[in-house]
Design a protein that fits this description.
Length: 95
């Protein structure tokens, strides 16, 4: 497990500006995906609550990334987390 955490930490550190990695509009996502597909990239998508990130989340992200060149991760909003995990969640809200 420590090896996965170490690898994830090193990959996160490689991101120069995290805001460049956050895509908040569908139009922006669409144009990025079109460009990546034109470059022949294999795009993989996964999503999750990731309320309190743990080793299981990290394993899932690494396995998903192995399936292609680009990993897109959707993060459930607070209302979705509450519906899926219970009334006392999220512990760490997005808002």
């Amino acid at each position: 497990m420590e090896n996965h955490i170490y690898k994830m930490k090193n990959q996160i550190i490689k991101v120069r500006n995290p805001e460049d990695k956050i895509i908040s509009s569908r139009d922006n996502l669409r144009s990025i995906l079109e460009r990546l597909r034109a470059e022949g990239k294999v795009i993989v998508f996964t999503n999750g609550c990731f309320d309190i990130i743990h080793v299981g989340h990290i394993k899932i992200l690494f396995e998903a990334k192995k399936q292609g060149d680009i990993l897109i991760v959707g993060i459930n909003d607070d209302d979705s987390v509450k519906r899926l995990k219970g009334k006392d969640r999220p512990i760490l809200p997005l808002s």
